[in-house]
Amino acid sequence: MATKTRKIKITPEKIQEMYLRYLLTEGKQPNSVFQFTDDIGIAEAEFYNYFSSFDSIENGVWEGLLIETLEAIENDANFESFNAREKLLSFYYTHIEILKAKRSFVQLRWAGMKDVVRTPEVLKSYREHFLKFAKRIVVQGINGDEIKERAFISERYNQAFWFQLTFVVDFWVKDSSKDFDRTDAAIEKAVNFSFELLGESSLDRAIDLFKFLWQTK
User: Fold this and answer.
1) Within its chain, how far is the Cα of 13 from the centroid?
2) Does 6 fall in a domain?
């Protein structure tokens, strides 16, 4: 079959846009890169100038959503005056607003991803950017006495926040309330709980109990 005549200038952004249109229309990825490129009117080899696979396109979509969120909050004149808890709240509220523009995509592709043992390939860059942000939140929280520094544990706090992020996105994906009001409430409760847990709290008592049980085993 002859390749269709190209009618538009092909850019990475245009390929991404046309891929998302196909994904949301058909409810699945194209059967092959050949089929997809033939449909949009470019040579298969040209696709590989920009992407290695369909998953790499989706990785870029997720990464873009996270980067857009970080840029939005950092451009807020008040953001730097926030404490660690307020910065995390600001991130979540802003991220949900950013995700709304691609809610159909998130709903379609999120199902099942958060429960897998290893981070899906399409979320690798998304997770990496968030972990770096969360690390800064942890450092500020420790310096501001909002979070307690604990040997061997503090360095993993940002990973705990990653699981919190997956909870927030999953809750929002399933939320049918008006203006996603329940998601806003869930964000506030989740962030408050995490800071109470990571501060001077029952976590220390749980650690002490674990140490005692281990030493007397």
Assistant:
1) 20
2) no
